[in-house]
Amino acid sequence: KERELSEAQAEIKALRLSERQREKAVEE
Q1: Membrane-spanning regions, if any (predicted)?
Q2: Could you read off the pLDDT of 1-28 as tens digits, one per residue?
Q3: Could you tell me where the DSSP H helices lie in the chain?
Q4: Which domain holds residue 2?
Q5: For position 5, what pLDDT does the model report?
């Protein structure tokens, strides 16, 4: 279960990073 939780957290981090990149692209 711990492994699944860490994988889910990694996916969330990736999603947040992609969202930030999208916001930066819109600003430019």
Answers
A1: none
A2: 899 999 999 999 999 999 999 999 998 8
A3: 2-27
A4: 1-27
A5: 96
Amino acid code (one letter) for 7: E
Residue linked to tokens 């430019």: 28
Pair of tokens at residue 10: 């990694």
Half-sphere exposure of 7 (CA within 13 A, CB side): 4
SS3 22: helix
Report yes or no on whether pTM surpasses 0.85. Answer: no
Both structure tokens of 11: 């996916």
Indicate the DSSP class of residue 1: -
Please report where in the chains the tokens 């994988």 appear, as a residue.
7
The pair of structure tokens assigned to 15 is: 């999603």
